Amino acid sequence: QPSLREWLANWMKEDGCALTADHILITNGAKQGIDLICRLLLDEGDAIVVTAPTYFTAIPIFRNYGAEFIEVGQDGAGLDVAALEAALDTRAAADKAPPKFIYNIPEFHNPTGATMPTARREALIALAEARGIPIVEDSPYRRVRFDGPDAPLLKALDRSGSVFHLGTFSKLVAPGLRIGWVAAEPGVVARVVQLKS
């Protein structure tokens, strides 16, 4: 539905994202979005970064693609970017390939509940861009906020087109609705469309 894609692009513009309908791919829930990104980016044995702990229903999807997990700890402000940088340095020193992406839930993280403040998000974006590693921003809970200001989406801070934003209406409208979306660069969306079934 082009009109739905246009509506979502405009909705995300309210969060500071410079998007058009061509940046949006509709999926059967956010988990199909995770699966499609894995299909696009991963080969058997590739490494990915996940928080410790991470969203438990994403783990089988990652395992299905034979991913190696680089687990990075968290604190009250979410993913520990300094620990991530150290892990990437250790991996590079061991002459191992960098991870194919960083998977993170920056808002009301499942299962920890942590929300990354703006400075931590900016540090994560800067590190990922410097290392050339895409970020998969899983954001099902952003609109489920009772008080306090929103921090910017990672996609809104993205200047290199390296953030894949995952959204869903499952937590906002109804779990059975199964309407999700991926926001990414139009060229990437066009490639993912070819993988969608």
Describe this structure in words.
The chain is an alpha/beta fold. 36% of the residues lie in helices and 18% in strands. The strands form three sheets. The chain has a five-stranded mixed sheet, sandwiched between helices. A two-stranded parallel sheet has the order 2-3. A hairpin with a 2-residue loop joins strand 4 and strand 5. The longest helix is centred in the middle third of the chain and has 14 residues. The radius of gyration is 16 Å and the shape is globular. The two termini are 16 Å apart. The mean pLDDT is 95.
Short précis:
By secondary structure, the chain is α/β, with parallel strands linked by helices. It contains 7 helices and 9 strands, in the order H-E-H-E-H-E-E-E-H-E-H-E-H-E-E-H. The protein starts with a helix and ends with a helix.
Topology:
Blueprint: H1 2-13, E1 24-27, H2 30-41, E2 47-51, H3 59-64, E3 68-72, E4 74-75, E5 78-79, H4 81-93, E6 102-104, H5 118-131, E7 135-138, H6 154-157, E8 163-168, E9 180-183, H7 186-195
Parallel strand pairs: 2-3, 6-7, 7-8
Antiparallel strand pairs: 1-9, 4-5, 8-9
Low-confidence stretches: none
Strand order of the largest sheet: 1-9-8-7-6
Helix content: 25-40%
Mean pLDDT: 95
Number of strands: 9
SSE-based structural type: alpha/beta
Q: Whole-Å distance between the termini? A: 16 Å
Specify the number of helices.
Answer: 7
Shape: globular
Major beta sheet summary: 5 strands, mixed
Query: What are the secondary-structure elements, in order, as H or E?
Result: HEHEHEEEHEHEHEEH
How much is the radius of gyration in Å? 16 Å
